[in-house]
Structures are given as C-alpha cells and as structure tokens.
TrEMBL record:
This is Cytokine-like protein 1. The keyword Ubl conjugation does not apply. It comes from Aldrovandia affinis. InterPro entries: CYTL1. Coiled coil: none annotated. It comes from the Eukaryota. Keywords: Signal. GO terms for biological process: positive regulation of transcription by RNA polymerase II. Residues 1-19 form the signal peptide. The keyword Phosphoprotein does not apply. The lineage of its organism: Eukaryota, Metazoa, Chordata, Craniata, Vertebrata.
Length: 132
C-alpha cells in the first residue's frame, strides 16, 4: 500500500472514531463527572453558596449501588431549596435537570449495561482518591 493510501486509511479511521456515538456507559460516566463538578461549583459560587451550603458534597460513582437513592435525595433537595432566588438560578435548574436525566438514563435506558461493584454509601460524600 502506498504511503498516501495508508494516510487516507488512518485519517478515515480517525474520523469514524470521532463520529461514533457514545455508549450508554460512557454517557453515564461523562454526565456523572459533569454533575460532580457542577455540585462543587454550586457550593463555591457566591450566588448559590448560601442556599446550597446545607447540601452534602456529591461525588457520582456509577459503580456504587447507593448512587440511585442518593441521586433521588439530591434531586429532591435541589427542587425544594428554601430560597426562591436559588431555585430560579439557571445553574441550579441545569444541575437539577441533568441529575434527573442521569437518574432516568441509569434507571431505565442503561439498566442492563450498568454493573454496581460496590455499595459503600459513605464513599459518595467524599472526594474519590486519584487513580494511579
């Protein structure tokens, strides 16, 4: 095969890889990271820190069986914030909607694809250790 054909083959494989749709599992992982980061930001943001200070830290681990009830509680707390201005905050609304969507995806769409390898509920309130 000529060098030009090899380059074309490599380029077309790279394009196909980039266009390949996410699996249910990768979607859940990316949404979990997004929710975890936004939960920390809500607690640091001056506009929302006062009304989200009572929320415990949230670390989404899709391999932990305790994540489903934990997410239901978190969504309920977000939807019942005592301060009207916080409930109307776009970041809070987006966090609530994303968490609801992730819960739905995990419960109904990816139900057979997910495997819970732990049931350590306390681990969902502590920052995970960095992987090596």
């Amino acid at each position: 095969m000529s060098l030009c054909q090899q380059a074309l083959l490599l380029l077309s494989c790279a394009v196909l890889t980039l266009c390949y749709p996410q699996t249910c599992y990768t979607k859940v992982l990316s949404m979990g990271r997004e929710i975890t980061e936004r939960a920390a930001e809500l607690k640091r943001n001056p506009d929302t820190e006062r009304c989200t200070a009572h929320l415990s830290d949230l670390y989404i681990d899709v391999h932990n069986a305790c994540i489903m009830p934990r997410m239901r509680r978190y969504i309920a707390l977000l939807e019942r914030l005592p301060d009207w201005h916080c409930m109307r905050n776009r970041t809070v609304q987006k966090q609530s909607a994303t968490a609801r969507q992730l819960h739905h995806i995990m419960a109904y769409r990816c139900h057979g694809e997910l495997h819970f390898s732990t049931d350590d509920c306390a681990a969902l309130e502590h920052k995970p250790r960095a992987s090596t």
